[in-house]
Amino acid sequence: MTRRSVLISAIVVGAVGLSAAQPPKATEGVSPTSITIGMSAAFTGASRSLGIELYRGSMAYLAEVNRNGGVHGRQIRIQAYDDGYQPNAAMKNSLKLMLEDDVFLLFNYVGTPTVTRVLPLLKKYQNLHFSLFFPFTGAQPHREPPYGSLAVNLRASYRQETQGLVDNFLTAGRSRIAVFYQADAYGRSGWVGVREALTKKGLKIAGEATYTRGTKYSESLDRQVAIMQEIKPDAIISIGAYEACAAFIRDARKAGLDVPIANVSFVGSESLLALLSASSATDDRDYTVNLVNSQVVPSYESATAPVVREYRALMEKHQPDPPQGFGDAGYKMLPYSFVSLEGFLNAKLLVEVLKRMGPSPQRAHIVSTIEQLSNIELGMGTPVSFSRERNQGSDAIYYTTVRDGRFVPITNWQEWRK
Amino acid sequence: MRIAKLFQKTMFGIFLLFGLIALSTSALCVYTVDKQLSTEYEANSRTIAQTIANSSLDIILNRDLSTLQSLIDQFKELQGIKYIYIVDEHGDWLAHTFVPGIPKEIQSADRTPGATVERQLPGFGEFVEVSSPILDGIAGSVHVGMDKGLIALKIQTAIGQQIYLISIIFIVSIIGSYLLVNLAAKPITRLGGYATHLVAPDAPNALTPDEAQALLERADEVGQMARLYRHLALRSEGAELAP
After folding, report:
1. Cα distance from B76 to chain A (closest Cα, Å)?
2. Are the C-beta atoms of A217 and A272 separated by less than 8 Å?
3. Could you tell me the pTM of the whole model?
C-alpha cells in the first residue's frame, strides 16, 4: 500500500467515524431518539408569567415522561422562542420553527393577537402538515373555518367563559354589564362573547373601556376608570392580561368603583393576585375583594380532580425551570398556578397523541389521529373528545374568587346579588 | 466698518427683498405641502378603508370579529392613521382601535359612509375621517381617521427646512452685499478725502499727498472725478496746488 492510498483510507475511515459520531438527522422534528416540538410565547414583557408558567407546567409532565423512557423510546423536547406577546415576533418565530428547526408541531402558543397572526402561515404551509397544538387562547379564529382544521384546542373558548360569566351575573341581578378589554384581537374576542351572551337575553353591553396591549401595573388606568364610573355598571368583565387588569382593579377600587370585576382565564390569576396583594399591603386597602375569575382547568387548590394530584406531585418533584435564557432573577416562579396546570394538561394530551401515532409519527397523520381521540381521560373529571367537526377537547369552565389570599371555587353566585 | 450712508438704503432694500422672497416661498410651500399631503393622506386612507371593506366581508359574515380586529390593528400601524372603526348596517360597533374608549363625539356622530369629515376629538386631536361602505353599505362601513397633527408636523418640517436654507442664503448674501457695497463705497470715500485735501490738507480725513497722487493716477471714473476736482480747484484759486 502506497503512502497516498494510506492517506486516502485514513480520510475515508475518519469521515465514516465522524458521521457515526453525529446524531442521525431528524425528519419532521423526529429522530430515533427525540421528537422536537416548537413553542413561541411571551417569556419577556408584561405577560411573561403566562408563557413561562405554561412552559413550566408542560415540562413538569414531559420531564416525567422523558425520565421513564419517552414516547416510543423518544425524548420529547420543546424548542422555545420568546415573542414578548407581539404578533410580528410570533410570526417570525413560527417561520423559524417550521422552516429552519423543522419541528414536529407547534405547541403552547400564548395569546390571541399572536396566534391570529400565525394562522395564515399554517395555511400557507399546509402542504407541510403543521398543526398548532393547544394554543393558550380561547378566541374563535382557530376554532372555526378557514383555520379551524389547522389547530387543536384543549381549553374552552372565551365565548363559553364570557357566556357563563354573563349568565351568572344576570342570575345575581346584575344586568348592566360593562367590558374592560385589551384593544386587540384578544380583547375583541372576549367582547364579542359578552355581547353575544347579552344579546341572547335581549340586553346590550352597558359600556366599554380599553387599554393598550403591554400596559404595565405601574401605569395609571384612571381614564378607563372614569369611563366606567360614567357608565355605572352592575358588573365589569375584563378581557386582558394580569398587569393591566390588576392596575384597572386597583384604580377602580381607589376611585370607589366597587362592583364585581371578573377576569377570564387568560389573565394569569396568580400573577394578578400577587400584584393586588402587594398593593393591598402597602395601601392598607384590600384590592382583592369582589373579584371573579373564570378558569378552564380545575382549581389546583382542590385535590378532587386526579390530574391536580398528579400535577402537584410532578411540579414538586421536577420543579421545572423557565425556558433557557428567560429565568432572570426578577422573575419569581409560581409553585402552582392555573396557567401551569393548563400547560401540564396540554403536555399530557400531547403525549397521548404521540403515543397513538405509533413508532413512526408523521405530521400528515396528526389530524386523523386527533379526530379519532374520544373520551380521553386526562383526570379533569370530564373526558375530552375530538372529531372531524370538533377541534376543542374540553368545554369545562370553573369560576373562582379570592378568599384569604387564594383562589377558591365559587359555590354560590347569590353572594354577588345586587 | 460702517456702511456708507449712500448705500444704507441699498442694504435695507436687499433685506426687504429677501424678506419678501422668504415669506412668499414659505407661504407657497405651506400651501403646496398642505394640499399635496392632505390629498395624499386622504387618498391613502380611502384606499385603506376600501381595502378593509372589501376584505372584511367574509370575516363579518363569519362573525369572526377578532380576526377583523387583527386586520384593522395591522392597518393602524401605518403612519398617519390614528384610528379605524367598523360599524354594521345598524350603526352598531363591530371593531375599533380607540383607547381608552370610543370618543363621545364619534358615538353620537352621523356615521353614514361616503363623505370626508373633519373631527375634533378632545384628548385625541384633530382628524380627517374617510369611510367606505361594506357591500354597498348593507353590511356596514369602515371609517379611517388620519391625524391632522401629523400633516401639520410635516408642513412644519418642510417649512423649517426651507427657512433653514433661505437663512443660510440670506446670511451669505448679506455678507456678500456688505463687502461689495463697501468695495464700491471705498473709492467714493477716498474721493471725499481728496476733496478735503484740496481745501484743507491738514484735516483729519484728508488724503496724504501720496494717497492723492495714487487717486489722480487711477484710470477709472473715480480718477477722472479726482482730476476734475483738481482742475476746478486750480481754476477757482488760480494757484498751484499740491497734486
Report:
1. 11
2. no
3. 0.80
